[in-house]
Write a structure and sequence with these properties.
Distance between the termini: 29 Å
Shape: globular
Order of helices and strands: HHEEEHEHEEEHHEHEHEHEEE
Largest sheet: 7 strands, mixed
Number of strands: 13
CATH topology of the largest domain: Phosphoribosyl-aminoimidazole Synthetase, Chain A, domain 2
Helix content: 25-40%
Number of domains: 2
Structural class: alpha+beta
Low-confidence stretches: none
CATH architecture of the largest domain: Alpha-Beta Complex
Radius of gyration: 21 Å
Strand content: 15-25%
Length: 333
């Protein structure tokens, strides 16, 4: 059998075969393998909980696939709250006729990423919908993490805090857009999709005063800074020439009339750090392979009239960085 049938979602022998030969084969652990209606977990501390859906198109892209993205996206939402990822649930919505070999590739990729992130998939579900009622495969995930570092919140950002990013921004969004539209930027250009708990822990172990952290997914850097501005009541001044943007991303945005600061990243962090700890935080981030291109791009400042996000150009002039409006790039994650 080479493709998914409606009977694979019917709860009978075909469903069991799919569970045994794909999901348990790659994701097996004692909790998942018990195959109960719910996972029994033992946690004795404060928890972080998140949920997310993944509909990226194409399902396979340079640097990743929907399986890797689903795990990375879920654990990164936990990590930015100072929570060590522990457990995940995964639900698959599969279109009738979807390739079983492609499903195996996606689940195997998910297993590799979960192992890298140190998270266990402990519950799951599979539904199959008739052909034409979904576009291949959608994934929905929830995650639980143990909060090891409390106090990370956009409401804790203070005037003077430095704004740091852990690497070039917009790679994921540009990669998906380029692949969709048939642009070829060479084999070296790929999505930044990756789990980030190891980088977060590497930084927070130092005790440096990190006030807030966010992964700039949909809406990119602009969305993060506008959300922070709303919540903190502060403005943000960032230097355009300090923001790391790859040449391929800049060129694509110029060609299509897009703002690179609106494009998603799936393996980067934006941080607000106490002004006295900026230099040490940069040094610490750059020690880690996932933070070696970290940059200090700006500051939280007192608003002149209302909270806003301001870009200082290389010429010393300033302009407002507008928030994302409309759906610039659907199905990016």
């Amino acid at each position: 059998m080479k493709s998914i049938r409606l009977s694979h979602g019917g709860g009978g022998e075909e469903t069991w075969k799919l569970v045994r030969e794909i999901f348990l084969k790659y994701l097996e652990n004692p909790i998942l393998s018990s195959l109960e209606d719910s996972a029994l977990l033992r946690v004795s501390s404060k928890l972080s909980f998140t949920t997310d859906g993944f509909t990226v198109k194409p399902l396979f892209f340079r640097g990743g696939d929907i399986g890797k993205l689903a795990v990375a996206g879920t654990v990164n939402d936990l990590a930015v709250m100072g929570a060590k990822p522990l457990y995940m649930s995964v639900a698959f919505i599969i279109e009738e006729g979807f390739s079983i070999e492609e499903l195996k590739r996606i689940v195997e990729s998910m297993a590799r990423t979960a192992e890298e992130a140190g998270v266990l998939v402990v519950a799951g579900d599979t539904k199959v919908v008739p052909k034409g009622q979904a576009d291949g495969l959608f994934i929905s995930c929830s995650g639980i993490g143990e909060v090891l570092y409390e106090g990370l919140s956009c409401r804790n950002i203070q005037e003077g805090d430095g704004i740091l990013v852990t690497g070039p921004l917009g790679d994921h969004g540009a990669c998906i857009l380029a692949q969709r539209e048939g642009f070829d930027f060479g084999e070296d250009f790929e999505s930044d999709c990756q789990p980030l708990w190891d980088l977060v822990e590497h930084l927070l172990l130092t005790g440096l005063r990190v006030h807030a952290m966010r992964d700039p997914t949909r809406g990119g850097l602009s969305a993060v800074l506008h959300e922070w501005s709303h919540s903190s009541g502060l403005s943000f001044l960032v230097k355009e020439e300090a923001i790391p943007i790859r040449t391929q991303v800049q060129g694509l945005c110029e060609f299509l009339g897009l703002e690179p600061y609106h494009l998603a990243s799936e393996g980067r962090l934006v941080l607000a750090v106490h002004p006295e700890d900026i230099h040490k935080a940069l040094e610490r981030l750059r020690e880690h392979p996932k933070g070696k291109e970290a940059r200090h791009i700006g500051y939280a400042i007192r608003p002149e009239s209302h909270p806003s996000v301001i870009l200082e150009t290389p010429y010393g002039t300033k302009r407002f960085l507008e928030p994302p409006v409309g759906e610039l790039l659907p199905r990016i994650c």
